[in-house]
Write a structure and sequence with these properties.
The chain is built from 10 helices and 2 strands; from the N terminus they run H-H-E-E-H-H-H-H-H-H-H-H. It is mainly alpha-helical and about 160 residues long. Strand 1 and strand 2 form a beta hairpin.
Length: about 160
């Protein structure tokens, strides 16, 4: 039964089973929902949403200061000068890439900030998902309301 239904909804008729717009679900046998991170309107990713959930945490203020300091060090060339001092770094791929691909700047601020935040928690975890399991993100934050509505709608239409 399921195999026949799934075969009917092959990639050739994908348009029929996809939702028409973000923040909605399709109505077919296969339910597909579209939710664009972080909140269906702003540019970003899951890490942005997680960080917004703890925006009033005293620890996030420390993380913000760390990134202000690091950005300043990149901008004034101190980071590049440090790496240029040592032959060891010049032979490493990350050194060549850090200044050629990213102009010596932090490439993905949201991911880096999320990792920094997780690194100062009582038990360090490696991912935002593990942080969620530990309760490090604030699931009561208003920042999560749109996502909660989206998931609740899906749950209620099953």
């Amino acid at each position: 039964m399921y195999k026949e239904e799934i075969k009917k909804h092959s990639c050739s008729n994908l348009e029929e089973i996809l939702p028409k717009e973000p923040n909605t679900f399709s109505n077919g046998f296969i339910r597909i929902g579209i939710y664009i991170m972080p909140n269906n309107k702003d540019k970003g990713m899951l890490e942005d949403l997680c960080l917004k959930s703890v925006k009033d945490s005293p620890l996030i203020k420390c993380v913000d200061r760390l990134f202000e300091c690091a950005n300043q060090m990149y901008e004034n060339g101190e980071v590049k000068k440090y790496f240029e001092k040592y032959e060891y770094f010049k032979n490493k791929e990350f050194y060549r890439k850090i200044f050629s691909e990213s102009n010596g700047k932090i490439k993905n601020i949201a991911k880096a900030k999320a990792q920094a935040y997780l690194s100062v928690m009582p038990i360090i975890v490696k991912s935002v998902g593990e942080g969620a399991k530990k309760g490090y993100w604030n699931f009561e934050s208003e920042e999560l309301n749109e996502l909660k509505k989206f998931l609740e709608y899906f749950k209620n239409t099953l």
